[in-house]
C-alpha cells in the first residue's frame, strides 16, 4: 500500500523557487485579503451567547502537570459556562488588542494570522448545558449558532466516531479548516500551518478542560465523511482536521 506523506512533505517544503510558498511582496503591497481575518457565520439561524466569564484562577504549571486524556466519563454533563471557558481560552477572541488597529488577539497562534480553523460543538447528552444537537462557534460573538437540534442514538454516535468509549462522552468539539484562507498566502504550505494550529487549539482545550474539571481526549478515530455530512460541509473547501471529546 503506497503512502504519500513523503510526497506531501516535499511538495509543501519552503522551496526557494516558490513552488509551495507564494512570492511575498513588501507588507505595504500586500493584498487586502492577506490582512483580513475571516470568520464564518450562519446568518438567520438561532444564536445564543455563551455565558460571560472571568479568567479562572489556575496555576499554569499545575494545569500542564494535571493534563490527561479522559475517555468517556459522562455523568453530570458539561455546562454552558464550562464550554464557554474551553472555547474562549482555546480558540476565542481575547480581551487584549494588538497594535493601534484594535484587532483582538486570539487564544491560539496562527501562521500569518490567517486563522483558517472553525469550531463546532456536537452535544450528545441531555444532561449537558447545551441542548443535544449541532452548533457552530461564532468567534466574533462568542456565541453558538444552532445548525440543528437533534438527539443522538448509540448507532448515530458509532456512525461518526470509531471508538466505543465515544458513547460515554458528553459532547464533541470538532475543528475544521477552511484551507483557502491560508493557501491564498502560503500555497501548499497552508496544510502544514492548519495542522499546527489545530494542535495549538487542542492543547488549549486540554488545559482549559483541566481548569474546569472537564475531561478531554483528542480523537483521531473519526469517520470523516460522516462528520462532513453532520456539519453540512463539503470536505474539500472546508474539512475536518481534529476532534476532541469532552466529558463530565
Describe how the helices and strands are arranged.
Blueprint: H1 5-11, H2 32-35, E1 47-49, H3 60-66, H4 80-91, E2 93-98, E3 103-106, E4 117-123, E5 133-138, E6 143-149, H5 154-158, E7 171-178, H6 180-186, H7 190-212, E8 215-219, H8 224-231, E9 238-247
Key features?
alpha+beta; 248 residues; 8 helices; NADH Oxidase; two-stranded antiparallel ribbon
Spans of at least 5 consecutive residues with low confidence: none
End-to-end gap: 41 Å
Measured as a percent range, the helix fraction is 25-40%
CATH topology title: NADH Oxidase
- Going across the major beta sheet, what is the strand order? 1-6-5-4-7-9-8
Can you tell me the CATH class?
Alpha Beta
| Total DSSP E strands | 9
Succession of helices and strands: HHEHHEEEEEHEHHEHE
Structural class by SSE content:
alpha+beta
What is the mean predicted local confidence, pLDDT? 90
Q: How much strand?
A: 15-25%
Judging from the principal axes of the Cα atoms, what is the shape? globular
CATH superfamily: NADH Oxidase
The CATH architecture would be 3-Layer(aba) Sandwich
